[in-house]
Amino acid sequence: MRYTCIAIILCSILKNASGQYNVSGKLLVFLLDGLRYDYLNNLDTFPGFQKIVENGVKVDYLTPEFPSLSFPNYYSLMTGRYTEVHQMIANKMWDMKPNTEFSLDDPLWWNGSEPLWVTMQKLDKRVYMYYWPGCDVEILGVRPSFCEPYKPNITEKNLTDAMEHALDALNDGQADMAAVFYDKVDVIGHLFGPQSLSDELHCLDRAMKALNEKVVEKNMSDVLNIVMFSDHGMSEITNLIELDKHINLSDVFMVLDVGPVMSLWPKEEKFEEIFTALSALENMTTYRRADIPDRFNYKKGKFVSTLTLVAKPGTVITPTFQAVLDLHFQPSTSGGKHGAHGYDNELVEMRGFFVAKGPDFKSNFRAGPIRAVDAYSVMCHTLGIEPLPNNGSFDRVRAMLRESSTAVPVTQDSCLLVLIGLFTCLHVSLH
Asked: Up-side HSE of residue 390: CA atoms within 13 Å toward CB?
């Protein structure tokens, strides 16, 4: 009995000392779609973001998962898993057998993994979400406590109103976590290119200045962690590949997406002919599914096509010229620029952004590079919850956290090991 009591007391002490449990437990997350890692390099001209960085951490850059598209990385950020694991492998997907295309509100495409907000709800924690893609979908039978449905290209007022509502919900105890999505940086980067964002970035910075003021006004500085990240960067478009000039599109079952990465399902009898024709093109690599590089952590995904086309930097792939016109992705002949993402995720211009501040983060600290899958464990840590199995590395993010909150978490399993060890010692001493 004496050893059991010692073990229980020891586990209790360790848990109280553990970073997994010694945290504020309130988290506000921002997903700033398309905010490239270098857009805010000159922080002197962005006082809102500068205040966050001076009081928190900024990583050198965040490497997205492949493909460096939005939906795959939305889910990698919130599950800590590679695209081939969480199954959200593209912005547009197709399930061949039931002949079903991706729909934003269909749980089929979301049920491949459990995102953080679902885990929180299962733990009887309340999550409020604003404009976040998928928050209105019943994922694995669960919805967040509050969801303002996704709306593209929201205004600065939408953003600041969402921030105010989120802070009030967190401060009043209505929510344990809040998450805000903002995509205007991405929208403008696509339409006018990555060098066109000065006005929008200053607009976003005004919102961050307002956020800083509201956190102080509501006396939340010592209890609220704030994490901001993006899903990818942006690259200028300089070249176009039109597939219908090289293959007969009637020889394929399905062609999906327009951009740096494309999914193609050729008819079986035409597969080799199409593969040969596309493999001869410059500025693009054509992969059979089995030959997709392992480092992409992509090819085992349930919805991966039989051929995957990956463009070289600056190139966009389209089935027809009209398709790219409809999306305003074409290289401009009038001096204007357009932007795209989805390329090899190791491309410098695809790098994303990550900053954080709050009681669990160091102050005025510059951290080394991380990956999209690493953000998940940071959020779990600040919330004081056990992360689900994932592909991230806590070692890559440990340095940004305060020393008092980085101890290895103690679980029921580790306490059980303590008990077993003590009982073993007791058994030996009795014999």
From this structure: 27
Residue 70 is among the residues annotated as catalytic for this protein: yes
Query: In total, how many domains does the chain have?
Result: 3
108: containing domain = 24-234+347-405
Q: pLDDT digits over 45-82, tens only?
A: 999 999 999 999 999 999 999 999 999 999 999 999 99
Phi/psi at 371 (nearest 5 deg)? -110, 160
Residues 264 and 396 in one domain: no
Strands 26-32 and 339-340: unpaired
What whole-number distance in Å separates Cα of residue 309 and Cα of residue 126?
Answer: 41
pTM beyond cutoff 0.90: no
Q: Is the pLDDT of residue 316 over 90?
A: yes
Catalytic annotation, pick one of 18, 68, 70, 305: 70
CATH of residue 335's domain is 3.30.1360.180
Cα separation, 210 vs 164, in Å, equals: 9
Q: Which residue's structure tokens are 């939005």?
A: 70
> Are both 5 and 30 inside the same structural domain?
no
Q: Are strands 235-236 and 339-340 parallel, antiparallel or unpaired?
A: antiparallel
